[in-house]
Every structure is written in C-alpha cells, then in structure tokens.
Amino acid sequence: MLHPALFAYARQPRWWALLIIGLWIAHSVATLSLLSPWIMAPVVVGWLGLGWLFRWGAPRRPRTQTRAWPWSLLPLALWGLYVYLAASFGDVDLGAVFFHLQAGMEDHGGTDRNIAAVLYTFSMAMLLIAFTWLVRVDHRWRLGERPLALILLATNPLFYGVGQRSAAIVTDDGAWLERRYVAPVIHEAPADPPNLLLLYLESLERTYADTERFGDAYADLAALGQRARVFEGIQQLENTGWTMAGMIATQCGTPLMPAGLLHDSQFEPLGKVVPGVDCLGDLLDEQGYHLTFMGGASTAFAGKGIFYEDHGFDRVLGREALLPQLEDPDYLNNWGLYDDTLYDITVEEVRQLSQSESPWAIVNLSLTGHAPEGYPARRCEQRQGEFDGVDILYSVKCSAWLARDLVERLEEEGLLENTLVVIASDHLTMRVSAWEQLISGERYNTFMLLGNDMPPGNVSRPASTLDVFPTILEAMGFEIDDHRAGLGVSLLSPYPTLVEQHGTQNVNTRMRAETALQERLWEGLVPEQQQEEEATTTEQIVETPEDATNEQPAYAQ
C-alpha cells in the first residue's frame, strides 16, 4: 500500500508541473543525443530531485503571485517543434519544411506521423501550462525566465539556420552557384537513342551495402551491381535531402531551393515547380521521347505532378490514375500502391511503349523503403517471412529484391534492348530503426547504370546527386557542354565535380547565401516589383578573384 505522504505530494500541483517539464527535458535529451530511451528515467529523477532541493513551486518566502504570461512560451514551443522534427526525420532540413508548406501537403501518406503530431501538440500544451503555472507561483522562475527565453532562442537550430543564411546574404553577393550553373543543352544525339528506365528506390542509400552493419539487406542490389557501373561516394548536399529535392537534383542538376518570399502568392500552393530551368524531361521531350512517370503515391503531394507535367512528361501516373488497374483495390498502404503492384503495372507500361517506334523513358518512384519502417509488399512477406512492423532492414531487403526482380523480368522478355537502366536512391533515409548504425560512418546514395553497353565496374570519387543528371545524359550517348549540366559534372568524364573542387561543407555554406540561383529556379514567380528593383541594381560584389564573373568553367580552375 502506498504511503500517505505520497498522496500528499501527488495533491500538490507543483509536482505535476515539475513532472511534465522533466518528462519533456528527458525526451528531448534522448531524442537529440540519440541515447537509449532508458536515459529518460535518471533525467526525470534528477530533475525532480532539483525541484525538491530548491523547492521550485513552493518557495520558503513566497511573493505575490502574478497572472503575467511568460516570455518563454514561444521559444519553448519552437524548441518543441524542433524536437518533433528531429524525432520524425533525424536530420532537420529547413528547406524541406518551407518547400512542403508552399508546395502543398495534401494526400500525405504519413498518417502515423499525423498521430504523433497530435500527441506532440497535446504534450506541448501541457508543458506550456505547467511552465506558466510555475512562473506565476514562484518569483525565482519569474526572475530567470526572460534570460531563459533568450537562451532558448539563441540555441534553437531552427533560428541558427535562418540567422546563418541572413548573415551570409549580408556579406555575399548571392551568386556563387549561379556562376557555376551551365544550362543543359544536347548538342548531338546518337543515331539510335536508347530508352531509359530510371528507378528511384525510396531512401535506399548505398550505406546499406556495408554487410558488417546491415547484413544482406542490400544483397540484391549488390548482385545487380556486379554487372553495372556503380558509383560510390555520391554525397547529399543541403536542399537535396527529400524526395522532390532528390528527383530535382538528379534530373535538373540543381538543389531545390524553396521559393520562399519569391513566391508571388504566399498563401496558395505553388502553380509551377522550378519553372526557370530545363531538366531531364525537357531535354528528352525535345529529342522525341515518350515520357512516363509512375509512382504509387499521390502526384498531388509536394507538387510532384506539377513538376513532371511542366517538364515534358506525357503521362504522370500516381495513386489516383493507377487505382483502377488494381485487382485488389484494398491492397494499399498509407501512401498508395505497394511496389509489387507498381512494378507489375510498370512491366505492362514498358510492353506498350516498346511497340512504339519512338524512344521512351520511364521514371519510377518506389515506396518500400520509406521511413520510419517501410512498406514491404506481400511478395516479400512470402519470401522473407512475417514483418515485425519496425525493422527497416526488412524493408530495405524487400525493396532491393523487388527492383532486381523487375529488371530481370524485363530482361527475360527482351524489353530492355537498347535501354539504359538507372537505379538510384532519391535521398538518404530519415530516422529509422537502424539510425544509430547509419550515422556511425559516412553515408552515400545509391547510383548505378546498367545496360546500353555500359561497361561494369566501380567508380569511387567525391560527388553529389547533382552529378547524376549529366552522367545519365552522357551514358545515353548525348553530347553536352563540357560534360556539364546544371551544377553537375558527368562522372563518366575526368573533370572534377563541385564537391571535389570545393568540398561538401563549403558548397553547403555557399548554398545558404545563394539568391541568384534561387531566382533562376523560380523564374516567373518573382513579384514584378522585386524584379524591377533588381533590374536597377547593376553592381556586382566579387568575393574573391577566382569568383569573378569572367571565370573559367569550374573544372578548369
């Protein structure tokens, strides 16, 4: 039986207030430090011990209570938002947050994260109530909470990122990347242009190929790699770390810098996605290709359908368009079609396109490896056994096998003659069950080329997903400007990449200061008044001699 003193403590509101605050502190420590959840217990006990020692909420010499609102409420809420984003995605990418807010969040498949968001909101409300009560009844907390508000603002990574970008704009001319951008142009095409099958495997980074950390999860892709050109060292730059950003990086050769204040209607979804640059679809469309995008999720999410429709694709097939083709209309996940279904429909699409005299290209986006636990298909459960609903390596193995099976099925039917197959991860994975193992070493994206007489072998060099675009073009036999397209350099050429020349950290730092490339990406969405003001500004600030506007191409510096 519980001691009566415990009931007496439980009736005191200060202990409930301190417990709520302590639980939030403990959860934040466990989330941001990546320590075991068991660390929460000693943190909470230590916090309550401090509360008992200093009599928080019950000072020995109490002063008159006040009904004033604490200054720290907003800083606390912003820290709560950051902890939620870190718990959901691991690395918090502000660009992804801004882009999705403007591009639209409709038909989002992450219902599990919606539930988590509701729970976080409720717990944050409890935290703010507990903190407000404590400040009002304990004058010592009132005296210290204004400095606390400043500390919370100064240490919040969300504000650090915004402040760092603002400071960079003040000291930079904001055109470092723009001066290195090469508009993609095809100067000469092969006599018999090859078809293209571009398979994006959701979050299936090459890091999983490390058998010591991940066993045989990547084995089927490694088997395909034995007869493919495999590129190692494909790093992830800022503004390329989510699905739309990954596809734009690899098809346009540019990071997806959100429209931000350049958008001429801040309270409406974007009507166009990177309208100011030509991408893979635009170039292939000019060459007479029939272009199809296929993905199991909705094309309405994050402007995906808008991007492909505006950049040369004839057919954009997502969940809405593919549902009528399902034999079992109930065989769906939160996002849409499972990949075994999607790949069956992909085979049929290739069959139909192969009957045409025109070359074709299919861009295919999978779902199996999607964080946090993936969406393994029935065929994988028949092959791998029951899924526990948590282990991402199960889903990684499933995704790799489904991709290999699709390629082999198409090869057996003779449907990949004169076809380049590209297998790539759209981005590095976000927070999953194997997160600690993933971040324990260097991480790289998957990128391999198969078919079209591409000699097998491994290419290991520092590069980024921006280099995928010109590499695909040259692998298809197209001649481009100095082996460059966008900010990328063909990895089939000997010329150095942006990462090789300047390093990932330096490129990321420059990207935070970039405004000129951002304006190029969203050309046409800049308000007319802003365009007129920029037209009157003719002076250009040169940071260093090598950054002058008459510089040689990046590889020749």
UniProtKB/TrEMBL annotation:
Residues 194-477 form the Sulfatase N-terminal domain. Its main location: membrane. It is found in: Cell membrane. One of its GO terms (molecular function) is transferase activity. This is Phosphoglycerol transferase. One of its GO terms (cellular component) is plasma membrane. It comes from the Bacteria. It comes from Halomonas korlensis. InterPro entries: Alkaline_phosphatase_core_sf, OpgB/LTA_synthase_biosynth, Sulfatase_N. Residues 525-557 are annotated as: Disordered. Gene3D superfamilies: Alkaline Phosphatase, subunit A (3.40.720.10). It is a multi-pass membrane protein. Keywords: Cell membrane, Membrane, Transferase, Transmembrane, Transmembrane helix. The chain crosses the membrane at residues 15-32, 38-56, 68-87, 115-135, 147-163.
